[in-house]
Specification:
This protein has one domain: Ribosomal Protein L22, Chain A, CATH 3.90.470.20. It is built from 4 helices and 10 strands, in the order βαααβββββαββββ. It has helices spanning about 25-30, 30-40, 45-65, 150-165, and strands spanning about 5-10, 75-80, 95-105, 105-115, 120-125, 135-140, 175, 185-190, 195-205, 205-215.
């Protein structure tokens, strides 16, 4: 079965700013080659979070086929191509980095989008059409968190609406669930039956993001949407 993953970081969150100066964090998370990419960049924090989202995305994918695989960041080696001065200057102006991640469960292809205020990564494994054929979207939360879990509710409703258009079903037919009692990947159901759609959800700060795969489906470029 093909699997998808995604991860997003809000660059304006206090914990995301100047993280490259935290040497203990850098040494704990990034191998020497990755550290060189961070410190050789004119935008070290941006590259740091690009590498981080690659590791997170790859782990989310591998953990679906190997549930007990550990998330030890140093075991997830990110290789990025066309790394340069990636810092978008305008909202909606994305830079794109292609790459892959070597993991304990094999190689994961990834694509990283760097915008003015966030870094977003998507990835896929065992998907013959490749990472470019994933369906994904980044949303700006319409308002600050007003109740616990607000981001998750907003994100799930956005995914259900998008899926309903592609699957030609009403949103009420679609449910997104996790196994009770443990952290597990979300699963899409259609009227209580697994839909065969692999999905990944992520949110950070004022952004939510998702990606999914419909094996054998015809996906047009308009299905892949960013802010």
């Amino acid at each position: 079965m093909p699997y998808v993953g995604n991860d997003i970081v809000d660059l304006n969150e206090p914990c995301a700013r100047e993280r490259s100066r935290n040497i203990r964090f850098v040494n704990r998370v990034f191998i020497p080659d990755e550290q060189r990419q961070i410190f050789d960049s004119p935008n070290p924090d941006v590259i740091l979070w690009a590498l981080w989202t690659g590791k997170e995305t790859a782990y989310k994918i591998i953990s679906k086929s190997i549930p007990d695989v550990p998330f030890i960041p140093l075991l997830y080696k990110v290789s990025m191509f066309r790394v340069g001065s990636y810092k978008a200057r305008l909202p909606g102006e994305d830079n794109c980095i292609l790459g892959f991640v070597d993991t304990p469960g094999g190689k994961i292809d990834i694509k990283i989008f760097i915008a003015c205020e966030y870094v977003h990564c998507i990835g896929a494994k065992d998907f013959s059409e490749g990472v470019d054929s994933l369906i994904w979207k980044v949303d700006l939360l319409p308002q600050p968190e007003i109740t616990p879990g607000y981001e998750s509710i907003f994100l799930r409703e956005a995914v259900k609406k998008h899926l309903s258009m592609i699957l030609n079903r009403i949103p009420e037919d679609i449910d997104i669930r996790r196994s009770e009692g443990r952290v597990s990947p979300p699963v899409v159901y259609l009227r209580d039956e697994p839909a065969g759609v692999d999905i990944s959800l992520s949110h950070d700060g004022k952004f939510t993001a998702y990606a999914f795969i419909i094996p054998g489906g015809n996906v047009s470029s308009c299905d892949k949407i960013s802010l």
